[in-house]
Amino acid sequence: MSCVCGEWCGLVCVAMTQGERVFALVDCNSFYASCERVFRPDLARVPIVVLSNNDGCVIARSADAKPFVKMGVPYFQIKVDLKRHGILAFSSNYALYGDMSQRVMSVIESMVPALEVYSIDEAFAELSGLPEGSIERLGRDIRAKVLRCTGIPTGVGIAGTKTLAKLANHAAKRWQRQTGGVVDIRDPVRRNKLLRAIEVAEVWGIGRRMTAHLEAMNIKTAWDLAQADAWTLRKQFSVLVEKTARELRGTPCLDIEEAVPAKQEICCSRMFGKRLHELPPIREAAATYAARACEKLRTQGSLCRRVRVSIRTGMFNPDEAKYSKGALIELPYPSDDTRVITAAAMQGLDRIFKEGYAYSKAEVLLLDLRQRGEFTGDLFAVEQPATTDRVMGVLDQINAKYGRGTLRPGRIKPSADWMMRRELMSQSYTTRWDELWEVKAQ
């Protein structure tokens, strides 16, 4: 089968049978930092950085903080520098970021024919078939409405393929003043000009190691990658790199994925707020992680057959003894029951815990996941009781209405000293009744 580029490439390319394909990538600008500013107008001109778990290192920066702070730098090393430059630091507020993300995606979805939520702060939209003169205007309307309804600034890239839309979005954010935050590169002249200006490292899917290999082949820009021989790229790297090169030429090889595929594994893990030496607090942490993993499991309608629990000490302090161990537990039947999965995690934890170590992290991993009806046991195989569905349904409904953790297993404590350090966390303005935004009259 010949693809749309006229070559027998062997790829599953998207045939353009009904005119030109048009994709848009809508990406939130400095999303975590922007979320912190939405309910703090006083921070509109204040540089912001957001920290990782346990306030470890910088994972997000506002545009005005980027010249002074590198991504990934440990917080303790830059505390003094942040104060000198007037930069505020915030702990990660995942509840706020997740809720704001849903609001942004809801606004975008109401304005486009099809939407693929790619990550917490970006989404691909299908714009094919819309009138030619309205597409760039729609991009500007999306940007304006998201800002008006959520307070989150965005950039919009429009192109004939998803990879080119990603590059157009990069240009929209990089040259925001000149472009107004929207860049349309469907015109071949504009597309080629941008490809020559963008380094190959900025291309979607090209990692740091691959960049070094490509540069050794004298492929230094996105234009060079687009002109490279597709078969050579496939042999040297993979079919994904070949698809990337073809997309840069304007041949769509990736389509919008509206239905999110169910995950094959679900993991929940956190670093403890402090080193733990005793088993009871580690059991509380593992039970909390198991309950969170079960929520995700039920959300996608899957059942779990195996659970893996693991613990480890810190691995970088030369003065601490090192230990890392995991245990795999087979469940009595495929289940999404928080009680069953938590009990299995506790069983595995009891087997691997050793005294005399300072533990820094625990992890619960749900394995062998399948949708309901996909497990085929024998005639006499034990199945999950029907009452479990009702109990878990009530649990999820209450927590959805009144907030996560309102109803929880008795093993879980709502505020324990092993939880992550988040000393600089802002309010959960949209997810907690007691932390709603207050507007006081002067």
What does this entry look like structurally?
- This protein is 37% helix and 19% strand.
- α10 runs antiparallel to α11 (239-249).
- It contains 14 helices and 12 strands.
- The strands form 3 sheets. A 5-stranded mixed beta sheet has the order 5-6-1-7-8. A 4-stranded antiparallel beta sheet has the order 9-12-10-11. Strands 3-2-4 form a 3-stranded mixed beta sheet, with helices on both faces.
- The chain has 442 residues and is α+β, with helices and mostly antiparallel strands.
- The chain has helices at residues 31-38, 75-85, 94-109, 135-150, 162-174, 176-179, 188-197, 208-216, 222-227, 230-236, 239-249, 279-299, 338-352, 386-402; strands at residues 23-28, 48-51, 58-61, 88-90, 114-119, 122-126, 154-159, 182-184, 266-276, 302-313, 324-335, 359-371.
How are the secondary structure elements laid out?
Elements: E1 23-28, H1 31-38, E2 48-51, E3 58-61, H2 75-85, E4 88-90, H3 94-109, E5 114-119, E6 122-126, H4 135-150, E7 154-159, H5 162-174, H6 176-179, E8 182-184, H7 188-197, H8 208-216, H9 222-227, H10 230-236, H11 239-249, E9 266-276, H12 279-299, E10 302-313, E11 324-335, H13 338-352, E12 359-371, H14 386-402
Parallel strand pairs: 2-4, 7-8
Antiparallel strand pairs: 1-6, 1-7, 2-3, 5-6, 9-12, 10-11, 10-12
Helix pairs in contact: 3-4, 10-11, 12-13
List keywords for this structure.
single chain; 442 residues; alpha+beta; five-stranded mixed beta sheet; four-stranded antiparallel beta sheet; 12 strands
